[in-house]
Amino acid sequence: MAHIEERKIKSGSQYRLVESHRENGKVRHIRTYLGTKRPWPKSQGWKNLSQEQVQRAKRKAARRGVRPSPNPLLPEGKYAVIYADPPWRYDFAQVTDWSIEEHYETLTTEEIKHYKDQSGVPIQDIFADNALLFLWSPQPKLTDALQVIAAWGFRYITGAVWVKKRLGMGYWWMQKHELLLLAKKGEFPTPLTKNRFPSVIEAGWNGHSAKPAVVYKMIEKMCPPPVSHRQEERDYYIELFKRGHKRPFWAGFGYEYG
Asked: Are 76 and 117 in contact (CB under 8 A)?
């Protein structure tokens, strides 16, 4: 038998997986810490867990165990071109396999808007006075994305759409596209006509949450780094909530960056 246990603390709640085993006539309880976020909505069941649910909870515990806490440090400096793919949290998922947290940690919209690293530095501190923001937004999170743009000190300008070659999930439309919003802070020159791209990006699907690699090249052509950055091999771009390895002239941060 197994169930999810919630323990109230001053700052919120802590969650544990409790597995009960009978040995020599006595019941032994094994508790596995799951963190301070609900492992999944309570409506999906926290009692009499199936073996699949137990393994799911243990995978979450393992992922949390190897990640820094609470938030990775932001890099030093100011950046003029920002590329962000926030780990949006959805309110619910009726199908277990669709749960975003099956793949990576998520943040609420408020946590994204007011993100601070573990030393207390707010995310807005690393944006230059004149900057561009390329922000990925799933269609259901469009309103939240516009809130993030405003909270980070930018104003929405325009956007592009990524048309995927794979049918995704959805409760109304089965999603086959994602939005790439463009926002501006202060003054930032528009790209030369020859460096502009169509607003529809057609690219294949390379795994959960992975974005088309061609977008890096598009951003670099639309917003080439100044000569001083190229000569000094200094970072000009920054990718927020990045997963993977460093790219030339790009800084980054994220749980799975480096």
From this structure: no
